[in-house]
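Project outcomes to date are best conveyed with an example. Our students and postdoctoral researchers have been running inverse folding experiments weekly, and each run begins with a structure described purely in tokens. The record below, which covers 171 residues, was selected by the lab manager from last quarter's runs and is presented without edits.
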């Protein structure tokens, strides 16, 4: 998947950033995650709530839009982080727009992260994975579309061979 930034224009105080998403692998994609870090004009925006993503026809595309960083003393947004999903046929190129006229629709299942003393859990909608903070084993538990594909086990994680040819597990 390629993203090509085509046009950044400000007309009468309205932002319309046009970018193109190109499926370049030759295989159709369904709900492929697209993430952009977008620089904004100085002194223009202080809240991400004014932004939305639209497709080529102007329909709002559900997106997670967050502030990546702000000017440290003046408080205006310097960069946005924009994430949405695009479905494209093989080799298709499709335009999308970032606009500042509000009305963003959040994804039905936005990415979330929860943390306890022992585990970090990341939920993306169809995928849920857990990472242990102690005895690190990369992914401790992974569920995809409600089906567990990695179960908690001491055998999960990396195995290294030390200089004495002894196996050392990461958990």
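After processing, the design step wrote out the following sequence:
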């Amino acid at each position: 998947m390629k993203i090509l930034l085509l046009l950044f224009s400000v007309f009468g105080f309205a932002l319309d950033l046009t970018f193109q998403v190109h499926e370049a692998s030759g295989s159709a994609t369904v709900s492929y995650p697209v993430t952009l870090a977008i620089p904004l004009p100085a002194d223009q925006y202080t809240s991400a709530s004014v932004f939305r993503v639209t497709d080529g026809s102007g329909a709002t595309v559900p997106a997670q839009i967050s502030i990546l960083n702000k000017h440290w003393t003046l408080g205006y947004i310097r960069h946005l982080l924009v994430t949405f999903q695009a479905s494209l046929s093989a080799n298709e190129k499709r335009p999308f727009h970032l606009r500042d006229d509000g009305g963003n629709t959040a994804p039905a299942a936005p990415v979330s992260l929860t943390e306890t003393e022992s585990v970090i859990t990341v939920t993306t909608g169809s995928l849920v994975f857990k990472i242990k903070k102690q005895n690190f084993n990369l992914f401790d538990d992974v569920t995809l579309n409600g089906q567990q594909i990695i179960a908690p086990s001491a055998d999960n994680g990396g195995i290294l061979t030390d200089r004495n040819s002894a196996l050392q597990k990461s958990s």
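The first strand starts at residue 2 and ends at 11. The chain has no helices and 15 strands. The training component of this project remains on track.
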